[in-house]
Amino acid sequence: MSLRLENVTVSLPDGPDTIEVLRGVDLEVSPGEVVAVTGSSGSGKSTLMAVAGLLRRPDGGRVEIDGEDVGNLSRSGRTRLRRDRIGLVFQSPNLFPSLSAVEQLELVAHIEGRLDSGARDRARRLLATVGLGHRLGHRPGQLSGGERQRVGVARALMGRPSVLLADEPTASLDEERGRAVMDLIVAQGREQNVATVIVSHNLDQVGGVDRRYELRHGLLSPL
Questions:
Q1: Which of 39, 61, 140, 173 lies at a 20 to 30 A Cα distance from 116?
Q2: What are 69's strand-pairing partners?
Q3: Given pLDDT bands bounded at 50, 70 and 90, which one contains residue 142?
């Protein structure tokens, strides 16, 4: 399994009380598998993704990436593992305004200390794969919302991650562009052999996935 959550719990303070946001969540995703998770606002979807993406520690349970238990990793160890093995796609692509599309991807390789001709070629190939081969030199302000999100997807795949996490990646797009981006994430998850989790409030936009789940009252249930 590329991604495995076992009996994961997270509680958050709510005034004098405590809310159980995640209550013993189990989830396993293998390479090339794509799963989708839905739930109402405040159901804990983003918390689930933060735990899976090593952005926060759970209160209890076990998180494994590529079979490695990350529970005892230091902060720097978690950061390093997240950089090397996890690709993140957010609601907003958060691109650097001054960098072109291809430079956004090359920056990933530069941070990893691997910016060479092979990395530059991969950046161009990935952008071509997501339909932006003709937009390599365009900056975010010259791209549409859907194109910017496609750059974000390509950037998330640039480091050859084992796990791809997409948290409401189409929230700022219209229905047509949103469906196109969802189709792209599903296709790329399979093509790149990445364990992929897509969180969306609207599963009607998400087709072709292996499994669907609903997060409700802190519990993850198959649909």
A1: 140
A2: 64
A3: very high
Can you give the pTM of this predicted structure? 0.94
Domain housing 149: 3-222
pLDDT at 15: 84
Give pLDDT, residue 174: 86
Report pLDDT for 16.
87
Alpha carbon distances (Å) from 165 to 18, 48, 86, 120? 27, 10, 7, 24
Tell me the C-alpha distance between 19 and 39, whole Å: 17
CA-atom Rg of the chain in angstroms: 17
CA gap 195, 179 in Å, rounded:
20
- What are the start-end ranges of the E strands in 66-207? 68-69, 86-89, 163-167, 195-199
For residue 114, the domain's CATH number is 3.40.50.300
Length of the chain, in residues: 223
Q: Which residues contact 60 (CB under 8 A, 6 or more apart)?
A: 7, 8, 9
Report the alpha-carbon distance of residue 171 to residue 91 in Å, rounded.
6
* For the chain, percent of residues with pLDDT exceeding 90: 79
At residue 127, does pLDDT exceed 90? Answer: yes
Distance, CA of 125 to CA of 65 (rounded, Å): 26
